[in-house]
Amino acid sequence: MTRDEGNGGKGRGEDSTTHVWSGPKDGDPSLATSEKASRRARGARLLLCVTGGAAMLGLLFLADFVELRLDFMGYSDDRAVSRILHEYGADIMKGQLRLLVVMALFGAGFGLLGGVLLALRGRLEEPSRRGLVSLGAGTALAAHALFFARHLVRYPQLYSESLYDGGGVKRAVMVALTRHTRPGLYIVLGALLLAALVPTRRGLVYAGRRLRTMPLPTLGIIVVSSIVGAYVALHARRGPHATRPNVLLVAIDSLRADRVFENHGRFPTLEALARKSVRFKESHVTVARTFPSFVTLLTGRYPYSHGIREMFPSEAERDRIGTSLPRALVSGGYQTAVVSDYAGEIFSRTPIGFQTVDVPRFDMHTIVDERGLQLHLNALPYAAGAGERFFPFVRAMSERADPQLLVDRTLHTLDRLDKDTPFFLTVFFSTAHFPYSSPWPYYQRFTDPAYDGAFLYDKPPLSPAQIGPADVKQIQALYDGSVASVDDALARLFHELERRDLADDTIVVLLADHGENLWDDPRAGMGHGDHFVGDHGDHVPLLVYDPRHPRPHDVDSVVRDIDVAPTLATLCGIAPPPVDGTDLGPLLRGEKADLELPAFSETEYWFIPSGPGFSTTERLPYPAVTGATDLAADGDVYMRPEVEPLVIAAKHRALRLGDYKLVYRPTRAGVLWSLFDVKHDPDDRRDLVQAEPERFLVMRDFLYAWMLDDRAMVRRGEFVVPR
């Protein structure tokens, strides 16, 4: 028996009342005061971690703060930059400050994570203040490294100008990361790091304690809401429109016809769509540049009729476009929408009849913001990675043209459309346009792993013209990788049409705004819209799949972009607007094999003084882009009115009639004429002007008649010039 027991449970020298103190009782003011002090202390220590993280990313921002460089399509000059800095200097500083704030907020979040991890281990009180700041900074640096590496591997084109082109260690590290790792690796590394820092048992106990403290009704509401939401999302269906089909117009920028009709299994989604479609194998565009081409496509009228002759029309010219297919469809009870990434910015400033427009904007504000971000490497993973809401201009970045992101936005638009009204939805993919910046893994899919030249990740628009065979092969492989990225995204989009019960009532039209030269012929170089050497620039695929009346077959005769609008209007049961084109219904139905249509074409603005197919002896000169364009008060870029007549007069023109092509090229020495038999001479090697003079004269007069249909033009000798 112990002494206490022998004392009747009393302590030595005490009375029979037991006085055992075990801390303050519930409701004791000292307890509340102690807990508040403890929370304040923990909060203060966590704040030190937050400060360290914010400071670390702020320092990284300042470390790569470089002089802002401004250009358009790779072209710039000191006068233009000086003017932009003078007029947009305040915008530049605001943009830089916004990036700094965002990076600091991310750094603060990373620092807080470091502090919370330390608290979960029960060791938050151990480090000194300096140690807590260092902890926050170290956590932010580690998390930033994972974010940065993952984003670099997924979108290396955003970083290549500063890292790969800079050479040295930066180049070596970038190549090692992109060739030997994948984006998912950094998610795994982050998860492993968290698992190592948070004890499994403590983490589970902590999570379980938080779950137990959640009110049961709240937990029930969350679970039921999740189930109902998933059910609605999976079973949202649209009723069929028996007499008026939906139309999904899929346009792929710069898509060449041979990538669809000579697929060889590289692009299975395009191949599968072609098998079940009417395949127009000789479809040609009027202008092989996006802006005038799309307006021509959607109005069914030639450029001299709708007024868009180059990429920089003024606001007044855009407002005068007039009737269009989308407007006619809206009048006929359709809902219209367009979704695009960077090349579709034209729809943000062109009133062409779309009720819903989800595309980037293009103006000098966008150019300034884009360049300001792109030269801050450490800000790129946050602004361009997941910051579209705060940095909407990232949608205008050609180096970030991810087709899967575009499909996400397309499905969001589709969900917002009225389920009981037929739709005309245009989806325009930009990835296949230069610089051919496809995300991981597509930029590696067809390339040579041993290639280490200037075009490892992309092909900038105005990079050096002197390239070797390995460079040409690499550029063509980058292009094919870009097409493959769109092909996979289309597979997902078409699957969603099936899942939503839309596929059987939706006409799918696939086409391109123009084709692309890829150094197949050194005389043609790279690009589009500059000349008529060969057909790769203006020859595009055209597929029409009507699930209501599937009649897959080939159409080998010439059709034009101006024919699409009247054809689709007729398929939708809508009277087409006034057009220059022809309804292709007889070809779709197989009633005719050839409508004997002439295809007229013209070149667009030349950004550089000379190039393949438009050397100094093959063109009329005019100012470079920075001298030919001007800025409106709202930042809109437009062609100077005094320059535009010269630009129009200098255009090359072409006529495609059956198997023959005639080309008109005005120069200071006179007009150069060329005639080719494209069936037997697809590379335009043998000029037939002298060999077939009668055909030449007939086609020449036909081409002159088309050029003079433009009432603003007049013929002077062999030249056609503005009045």
Order of the strands making up the biggest sheet: 4-3-5-1-6-9-2-10
Count of separate DSSP helical elements: 25
Structural class by SSE content: alpha/beta
Query: Major beta sheet, specifics?
Result: 8 strands, mixed
Strands, count: 18
Helix content: 40-55%
Runs with pLDDT <50, length 5+?
Answer: 1-23, 210-242
Strand percent estimate: 5-15%
The Cα radius of gyration reads 32 Å
Q: Write down the overall geometry.
A: globular
Give the distance, in angstroms, between the N- and C-terminal Cα atoms: 124 Å
The average pLDDT is: 87
Short description:
This protein has 723 residues and is an alpha/beta fold.
Describe the structure.
With 723 residues, this protein is α/β, with parallel strands linked by helices. It contains 25 helices and 18 strands. The strands form 5 sheets. An 8-stranded mixed beta sheet has the order 4-3-5-1-6-9-2-10. A hairpin with a 2-residue loop joins strand 14 and strand 15 (660-667). The relative contact order is 0.11.
What are its keywords?
single chain; eight-stranded mixed β-sheet; alpha/beta; 723 residues; 25 helices; four-stranded antiparallel β-sheet; disordered N terminus
Helix/strand layout:
Blueprint lengths: L2 H4 L22 H35 L14 H43 L8 H26 L2 H4 L7 H13 L2 H15 L2 H13 L3 H20 L10 E7 L5 H4 L6 H8 L2 E7 L5 H10 L3 H4 L8 H5 L5 H7 L3 E6 L15 E3 L5 H11 L5 H7 L16 H14 L6 E7 L12 H4 L23 H31 L6 E6 L5 E2 L7 E2 L11 E7 L7 E8 L3 H8 L13 H4 L10 E4 L22 H4 E3 L5 E3 L4 H6 L3 E5 L2 E8 L2 E8 L15 H16 L4 E4 L2 E4 L1
Parallel strand pairs: 1-5, 1-6, 2-10, 3-4, 3-5
Antiparallel strand pairs: 2-9, 6-9, 7-8, 11-14, 12-13, 14-15, 15-16, 17-18
Helix pairs in contact: 2-3, 2-4, 3-4, 3-16, 4-6, 4-7, 4-17, 18-20
